[in-house]
Amino acid sequence: MFNSRNRTLSVTAAALATGLLLSSCGGATTKDAAPSAAPKSCVDTSGDTIKLGFLNSLTGGMAISEKTVSKTLHMAADEINASGGILGKKIVPIQEDGATDWPTFAEKEEKLLTKDCVAATFGGWTSSSRKAVKPVVEKYNGLFFYPVQYEGLESSKNIYYTGATTNQQIIPAMDFLKKQGVKTLFLAGSDYVFPRTANAIIKLYAKQLGIKIVGEEYVPLDKADWTTQVAKIVKAKPDFIFNTINGSSNVGFIKAYYDAGLSPKTTPIISVSIAEEEAPAMGHDVSGNYASWNYFQSLKTPTNPKFIADWKKYPGSSGVTSDPMEAAYDSLYLYKALVEKAGSFDVDKINAAAKANKITFNAPEGMITLDGDNHHIYKPGHIGRINKDNQFDIVWSSPEFIKPDPYLEGYDWFPAATRDALVKAAG
């Protein structure tokens, strides 16, 4: 799986030019290239502690979302340390700020692996941050745990993806829209790899579902003025807007949406990056709009009440839980399970344990299982409608946990030739 799929995706040459920012980060690797030997690891396992890196945007446009992910990782580390650590070793977190800047993510990842000598790194949010980290973590044969939903079409032996891939979030959202009788859809996204790739897939599936795409607009991640683009939405009069905007740019989009006279009653939004953390920060009442996630605070599972209570009393807590922070929390416990199953912090032994064993964690979203072949997670799908308390009333749930299919190989409308052409576009 990893040798044949170890490349990142670009939808078109234009997407490469405007959205990916990858060529300088080594975002694509060649299918037939022989892997070079990784430098010797400097991880020290001789004492009673183990260093782990937390790499999150604590400043910049993505801080609105990533600060909470960082704090949740610290909470999980504190819990694990209180219960004896990992293989008897207490976690020493090394926190770095990716600063919503993709070269900074690569630089900090290299520092964590080669100077701080961490055994694994946890973090990132945007796909551009992950793609910046990917060549670094592969070069040094490290491990990176990525907690956020993304566009799929990627796998790496050095990355574990604990957020949703496309068939666990975007495909269920499109199926939901079809069942709601949606005929026309407008696509609004930030201008980088995740929204452009996600929307390329959405357009293919929309054609299969008989949903017409009546417009598609992008704004750079660090920009907040959506006035011109929302005017095009008003003119197109779609039944729904599919929102793949990330970070604080959502605030500008929501402002333009309401300033233009749009509302959930006439033109509802379904989002894949607005959760409980972001909803109250939008500057408007966003109730009545929708989001597709794999976890909501309102989810009824045996483990969720304790997770919520523990988070609310944790120092510096935002007071609400959300999907990305829950997936980050899960990632540290999955790492613990992997290390203990391997009996080692060695990366190759951990990956071997992932393939040879059923690795599970009784997470707040339910009992999750790691797919050892592609390093993704079996996850439930949920659609929620925002209420007046900025919580989500769950209006649809998948009947079972969804097997991760990052390359959409199980979907006839996404043929191999199309998939391979898209991957080839990465260069």
TrEMBL record:
Domain of life: Bacteria
Keyword field: Signal
Signal peptide segment: 1-28
InterPro entries for the chain: ABC_urea-bd_UrtA (IPR017777), Peripla_BP_I (IPR028082)
PANTHER family: ALIPHATIC AMIDASE EXPRESSION-REGULATING PROTEIN, PTHR47628
The protein's name in its UniProt record: Urea ABC transporter substrate-binding protein
Provenance organism: Nocardioides jiangxiensis
Underlying gene: urtA
